[in-house]
Amino acid sequence: MNTAAATLQTEQQVTLLALLKDRFLKHMNRHEALSWTQIEQRILIEPQKLFSLSEMERTGGEPDVIGYDKASDTYLFVDCSAESPIGRRSLCYDQVALEQRKKFPPTGSACGFAAQMGIELLDEGQYRTLQTIGVFDVKTSSWIRTPPAMRSLGGALFGDSRYDRVFIYHNGADSYYSSRGFRGLLRV
Q1: In the chain, count of helices (H) and strands (E)?
Q2: Do 96 and 70 touch, CB atoms closer than 8 A?
Q3: Which of 91, 89, 115, 96 is nearest to 185 (CA)?
Q4: Which distant-in-sequence residues (6+ apart) come within 8 Å of 20 by Cβ?
Q5: CA-to-CA distance for 81 and 152, rounded, in angstroms?
Q6: Among 26, 47, 114, 142, which residue is least crowded by beta carbons within 10 Å?
Q7: How far is it, in rounded angstroms, from Cα 39 to Cα 19?
Q8: Collapsing DSSP states into helix, strand and coil, what is residue 91?
Q9: Is 177 within 8 Å of 90 (Cβ atoms)?
């Protein structure tokens, strides 16, 4: 992430923080024991996190806090849009897959896009945790962080929710679909 370009004007910061606070208060079931005041203070200490949250919002992710990680002392912001963020679809899994796809390559990769935004892809456990606080990806699917051993064989993982159940599947890492994007995680 380019930190020089990763700053927001004061007015943009105020608008974004108000939007995040409003979403936080509307969805208390996602973070019952947490306080917005503490989270906002943490965000303001690390202004580059505001850029990442802004990018999550700009691309349709509707980021919200879904928990607190005691081990890393961080609040976890995750894309909570009902479907995979619309501004992050039609991407293959990573840069290697993008470079290997010679015919009809997509415009980018999920891992590359996430790195530019300063966020990380959800792993399988995080994706399943997200699905316990709501129902997500019933019409779309989302790439998830793939273990290196699987990735070295050419595959990548994605998840969705169908028939009242969460499914984790595999696909070639170079594949891309208009209904598949990725969900991000930002630690604040």
Answers
A1: 7, 8
A2: no
A3: 115
A4: 43, 53, 63, 64
A5: 31
A6: 26
A7: 14
A8: coil
A9: yes
The dihedral of CA 181, 110, 126, 158: what is its sign? positive
> Which runs of consecutive H residues, i.e. helices, occur in 67-123?
95-100, 110-117
For strands 141-144 and 180-182, give the pairing.
parallel
Closest CA to 188 of 63, 88, 85: 63
Closest CA to 65 of 23, 116, 95, 111: 23
pLDDT (tens digit per residue) in 7-29:
778 898 999 999 999 999 999 99
Q: What is the pLDDT of residue 164?
A: 94
Residues 43-75: tens digit of each pLDDT: 999 889 999 999 999 999 999 999 999 999 999
Q: How many CA atoms does the CB half-sphere of 5 hold within 13 Å?
A: 6
CB atoms within 10 A of CB 147: 12
Q: At what angle do helices 47-58 and 36-45 cross, to 10 degrees?
A: 110
Do 160 and 137 form a contact (C-beta atoms < 8 A)?
yes
